[in-house]
User: Fold these one by one.
Assistant:
Number 1:
Amino acid sequence: MAQKKQNAFYAQSGGVTAVINASACGLIETARQNKKRIGKVYAGRNGIIGALTEDLIDTSKESKKDIAALKFTPSGAFGSCRHKLKSFEANRAEYERLIEVFKAHDIGYFFYNGGGDSMDTANKVAQVSKKMGFPITCVGIPKTVDNDLPITDNSPGFGSVAKYVAVSIREAGFDVASMAESSTKVFVMEVMGRHAGWIAAAGGLAAEKESDAPHIILFPEVAFNKEKFLKKVNQCVKKFGYCAIVVSEGAAYKDGTFLADAGSVDAFGHKQLGGVAPVVAQMVKDELGFKYHWAVADYLQRAARHIASETDVEQAYAMGKAAVEYALAGKNAVMPTIVRKKTKKYQWTIGEAKLSDVANVEKMMPKKYISSNGFHITEACREYLSPLIKGESYPTFKNGLPQYVVLKNEPVKKLLKKKFKI
Amino acid sequence: MAQKKQNAFYAQSGGVTAVINASACGLIETARQNKKRIGKVYAGRNGIIGALTEDLIDTSKESKKDIAALKFTPSGAFGSCRHKLKSFEANRAEYERLIEVFKAHDIGYFFYNGGGDSMDTANKVAQVSKKMGFPITCVGIPKTVDNDLPITDNSPGFGSVAKYVAVSIREAGFDVASMAESSTKVFVMEVMGRHAGWIAAAGGLAAEKESDAPHIILFPEVAFNKEKFLKKVNQCVKKFGYCAIVVSEGAAYKDGTFLADAGSVDAFGHKQLGGVAPVVAQMVKDELGFKYHWAVADYLQRAARHIASETDVEQAYAMGKAAVEYALAGKNAVMPTIVRKKTKKYQWTIGEAKLSDVANVEKMMPKKYISSNGFHITEACREYLSPLIKGESYPTFKNGLPQYVVLKNEPVKKLLKKKFKI
């Protein structure tokens, strides 16, 4: 446990979001307010790879204004990566190298901003550093658009994607409704969410009544039944004149085969998906003959800082701030969480979870959040999701474009002679 | 020329936009201020189809508040369609029916809100109504996301799509830049624009310096050269770490073959396109091996009222207003236009064009707007486009979602016994 003044290391991990930089902002601003305990905040260039290669960024070189601007800037300002550390037994060299780098730069605090895989890494660093006689205070900061981290009520990054998806399908729904009589009758929008349908579910918020878009949501949690689906599409077109569909990239048949499967695999061993929207649209065209259009939002949804949820931004900031406060309070191998209060009006506070309880656990959508026909969300789901997209937090615009900060990202002088190959 | 008090007919035509309802708002509000000359404004349900089938909407039944809300609502509030009237010789019955309906409902003003095809229709109605002894004052209102109407400096609807595209590729560019070291290196975003590259060009506004996204724009105006393209992609990845590409749905090979061709044809005989982004992305993967992601914005781009350009909204409103004023001034077979003043700071005023000069003419991008290597926009293009995306015009949000109006759209009592089959 670091009581003397030591430096801190911060890294962003995995897919970036519209608000992960808001967590960085909360963390750096809070660290700067605690200079007696925390020296400099070093960020890993491209996440944990920066720690392994001793490629550290000196955030103390950034102006107060630029750090504040992080709250309004999407993406990962220091770079992120999809490099997952193996177990200590399987790749001892990586852990030894990390501790070596941290020791050389007098780093007593390790802050890792990511999803389940990253919480696993942070937890291992806490254990290994102790074993190796250089104990480091490790605090995770939750981040994932997939909203699949356990214990925390929701994950920073999700609320903004949720808002983007709900806003987009509402707007596209209005568009299609006005043309459906003589043109496009079926619109399919593909959204992210590998195994959990949280993002797809958020699209459901746009539908305040049965006739509103989206009429159908295809969840990864519900086995795709072509016949039932086509019947529902046909019903919607007959009843409302058109049918707007939100489909999760993870939508799959009963046997687990994804509706669209690009076939390649990412560094974490997850299948890389994409292109389910055209598959679903073509199915509708072939079987029902309706004119269709489809959209694949892809990175646009998770980068859309211009329509970020204010709630999400505030929570992301608060998680970064709390991480520093927890570390200074001597808490180790924990992650701050968002706790929903049991009030009628949405209120939240900050809790904590052990990293060992968070690591590698995927929070699925509760069954009670999916309507009985499997095609929409329930009132319980709406109550859960609705506050998360609340509030707008617009960036500054100049000449019609949002002004996002690009940091100087000045490197810290390397102190180790040995290079490390990833 | 209508001098006595008569009713007006208004219809929305073709693909809807984020701001076509702002034109409707300008038109209806101005008509309501001129009750001595204009009785009621009847809107065609689903565009010109509503006129042919005598399915008229009585806009006088809508509250002042709801009409004002049209300024903030995307899509076509009365419904639009892709029905193109043939020549008088080829389908005399349609024109006779139109005049019959207009006569029955004492309609002396015909306002048609659409693109080049619609201006052609409005022009024909002006001619035919005169021939048939029931002269109607016909005024077109420009609308097209494609920005391909001639004479007018730009077309309402375009500025907002342009802003959406520029904002989106900037945000996605930030995202990819932060992950490129170990993940996605090439991002492809597909945008609309059949024959003219205006929308794709707008993406270029996001790049304020060479290293900014997008690094490559694929225009319909520039024959696609695979070898040259892949070389450029490779250069960008080497130089900037990643490559962000905006591709127009109309991008084509030298022989005119579209890079992606869905094969079907719409009511105007245009080929229906979609899906060029995955084609380009796969090409990059196959030849260069880079990890890719792609997005197809489709309707999201033209419906995105939440990020509409304030300039565009104001101009759309002004066109609707001017249409009424022109009609009341006795102008016939004209269309108000946007005229760019020759001032250093962007200023615009309202001009007029003859419908016969506008009809069926496509304004292409000038060659001087495309950089010499064919992959980006020039400074001249930037100067032209930049003011069109300026200003934000946010809708009201409630519970995190934009509040768009759905009108009552009460039908006008039918007066004709004869039905009409489209």
Number 2:
Amino acid sequence: MYSMAKRLLVGPPLATAEEHHTRLGRPTALAVFASDAVSSTAYATEEILLVLMPVAGLAALDFLVPISIVVAVLLTIVVFSYRQTIYAYPSGGGSYVVSRENLGVNASLIAGASLLVDYILTVAVSVSAGIAAITSAFPVLRDQRVWLCLIAIGVMMLVNLRGAKESGRLFAPPVYTYIVSLIILVGYGLYRVFLGGLEPMPLDEELLREIASNVDDGVAIFGAVSMLLVMRAFSSGAVALTGVEAISNGVPAFKKPESRNAATTLVAMAVILGGAFMGLSVLASHLEPVVSEEETLLSTMARYVYGGETPLYFVLQFATFAILILAANTAFADFPRVSSIIAGDGFMPRQLANRGDRLVFSNGIAVLAVVAGLLIVVFGGETSALIPLYAVGVFTGFTLSQAGMVRHHSAVREQGWRRSQVVNAVGAASTAVVLAVVVVSKFTKGAWIPAALIPLIVVGFKVIHRHYVRVARALETPADYQRPHRRHTVVVLVGGVNRSALEALAYAESLRPDRLIAATVVTSDEEHERALDDWERHGLTTELRLLHSPYRDLTSPVLSFIDEIDEEWPDDVITVIVPEFVLEHWWEAALHNQSALMLKARLRSRPNTVITAVPFHVSRPDGKT
Amino acid sequence: MYSMAKRLLVGPPLATAEEHHTRLGRPTALAVFASDAVSSTAYATEEILLVLMPVAGLAALDFLVPISIVVAVLLTIVVFSYRQTIYAYPSGGGSYVVSRENLGVNASLIAGASLLVDYILTVAVSVSAGIAAITSAFPVLRDQRVWLCLIAIGVMMLVNLRGAKESGRLFAPPVYTYIVSLIILVGYGLYRVFLGGLEPMPLDEELLREIASNVDDGVAIFGAVSMLLVMRAFSSGAVALTGVEAISNGVPAFKKPESRNAATTLVAMAVILGGAFMGLSVLASHLEPVVSEEETLLSTMARYVYGGETPLYFVLQFATFAILILAANTAFADFPRVSSIIAGDGFMPRQLANRGDRLVFSNGIAVLAVVAGLLIVVFGGETSALIPLYAVGVFTGFTLSQAGMVRHHSAVREQGWRRSQVVNAVGAASTAVVLAVVVVSKFTKGAWIPAALIPLIVVGFKVIHRHYVRVARALETPADYQRPHRRHTVVVLVGGVNRSALEALAYAESLRPDRLIAATVVTSDEEHERALDDWERHGLTTELRLLHSPYRDLTSPVLSFIDEIDEEWPDDVITVIVPEFVLEHWWEAALHNQSALMLKARLRSRPNTVITAVPFHVSRPDGKT
């Protein structure tokens, strides 16, 4: 049943030898790697306004373009910094690898934990923003958004368990449609504003009042835009940078010369991302839209610029949905890959490094889907509730990766390393400052969650690693290791003389032990006599020991009996044989005392003791079929 | 941990020999056995009014005394019928036993299922009515009634798991206090009505309106009291008879002459029960109280008769609570006892016939508490919602028990058997008619639940019995049974050459099998080579088979390998040995592939195959502590 359902959903298994890769040309690579970064334009501008507007009203719009310029400058710094990484690590330089090589184990574990948190949030944020694009176009669906998000995550999980190839053919159409739609929106919108005399959007007084009533912190008391608020708004806008590091991880996927093509693609991506982000901010500052959680900013502005729900409007909404789903999908490739690397280093459960039937890291895919789904449920599928959690992991990764590069240049001293080192140092310092701004300004808004979680994950990594080291040490076998020779005592536990007990006794004899004892638990003198009689009547010659249990408990008398016979020989191994029913239906197990199970659990931790269940097939008592 | 908590809550275990019984004198026996029957006076009159009043208003009171007289006549018939049972079954004649002996297996199973349903409802109804007595006195507690009921059930469960003796000293005070309180209430109430000029209670118009708004069926359309409604009211009143059969079960608990003392006590109990029930109905018909679910009828009338919340009022409320809890407690003795008898006959899981640490049938006690607790939660702790479910089981038991007695007299033909047979025939016929009335009139009100459940339980009984018969047949051992002699093949599954694998190999050698093979699963040619090298390097001479698994699945290659070697010898038994890590912490299991577990599950159903896990203690790799 299980395996049939699995075949149907996941497809037939693939052999290890069937693994292969295709190299990507620059336009396709741009589509594949840019989806994560570029898709953040769908919500970054809106998130800035969602911080400012409830407190400052339309005055918020004055801050939008300045904050966006700071974000764009930060983007430029980060992009130049990552160009160094691309050339230094042509085999792929994610922040876990770069930190491990240059900053040591602890830094790499922090980077790894940040990455995992980051990927989980990429799925949660992108999916909820993608569904928001759909519910903005079709408001009746808004109350179903949590379900819609979970369905999207479920579908992505299945697709990835099947082993979707990162085919450029799949990525290119939605990514380029989204980019073109944004260009049309910004271009046509600004054209109408400056040349077509488009007025700012009419004020929706009621909506503004409602937004103002959401004010929930001290900032509003001053009735002004405080420094803290600006920092918060900037922190929200900074999520536009997520996904910029993707290309540096994926250098080997480019056609030759890999590093050069990757670096060029990175710059192209940054230009598109920065341009679209700035364009949307400028457009918003002229249209003066009032943001709410009911409809996305993109949808509000497109509806106004296009004068209603025109075909172009729907193209934009669906393209937004599509690119955000693709962005989430990249996390489904990256999370399992990074966790398999960390698991390979012994810091995460080994199963995360196992390839499933379809050659993908199935366990990592499932873990990501479940955790992201939980986040969606807990935060009600609201993008803006998840944003404060997002930036912490992203900027921790940036900072460690760039700091690692600074050390890398000192160590390698390649041509022109001093200049490169300065670039990376500026990158590391800027992202570190942003990280501090994010944690401080958004701490009470949710940033405390990753700030607490990342160290906890690092502690978990270390505990797991210590366990694996301990096991490896215990398994070590010196070349001169002599296998111990031991005498063998076999104890057969029987409930009475019946077919299953006799089968178990026959099996025990076939082991040819040094000593064979049958034991049975009796709770009264009558049972004692009856057991002896039965034994004699069946002409059994095996030594029988009757264990008295006045309290009708089966485990303790057996345990003390085994302790007793264990003391006779110092070097023996004891095998305890228990007859066990093999039943046809699962519910039948409820009709039998599970004392054998209890005994098994208790004997497992006893040294030099092996417990063996001899199965008795109730439906085929004669054995061989 | 678990066993410490158990000792604290349940007490130290008792030896089988510690079981003993005390015989009860008549006054104490009356207290012990009457609690169930007499306690129903606390709600029976009220339940009649709760059916009639929402439709007929105060006209309902005209029907109260006539219906009560019919119930009292029925009580007389049933009591005389049960006197026959007491003399015929001095060792205890519950309806399960009487039906089994006289009517055959099927009838006894129906009786058994009815009894179990009946006991569960005794707990649910008595506890909710008992808590209603408390919340009537302290209305602030009414919203907490479900919790209060669950606490009461939990306490009873613990007390019974400890093995409370049915001590007369415990039962007598509350039972006699309740009886005396009722006599005072009825006596003083009627005195005030007839000689003190007490007027009927003032009409609470609002309450009457509220009650009238609850009307929810077609009966009300006619604005009159229809036949169906009267039948329903009578069915509710008939629950007064529950518990009458208790004495016939408990004859052996009486002092000698047992049957005679039991019969006398039964009549005394019936007089008290019938008198109190009639008295309350007469009092109610004069006081004209308006019933509601907010306050019990007893509480309403006592408050009015005593002119407020006097000490006598509180004594009555607490005595009502106490006797109802005692009534529920008798089910905690009866349910486990009856289910142990049924389990002993092989119709219920065998564990229900096992005595726990404290010599009580612990599993039955726990099952009763859980199911009754669920009923309380589902029906919101409302007595009147549970009443329609109650009478079906009770009257099914009565009918089968009395019908069994009719057959008994024909078979035994004791002195004067014809007269006795007529008595039982009248009893069987009357209770059968009442059963039909209950099922028909209350079907849509909840009687369908037991009407559907009892047959389902009977089917469950039969399925369980068939299973046990099948197992017993499979275990049968003819006297000339020859234990098969078989050749022994041992397969050791190893993941690589390490200490745990070497220990498992040493263990396998100590079994001195006819054939020993080590097997390891490899997923690539490199792994193949490496495994061979390791084997040679450690100088291992055991035959090594390399099982190729291109799809990285561990179970299937092992299974087909075992099939393959199993074909070589037709008569062999195969032992599969798997090294298994014994870890210190439960969570460490999540860090290892559980492929051995999967393999175990798959091999369990294979004939002539034994799977043995050789434990490797990671924290004590050297073995003996």
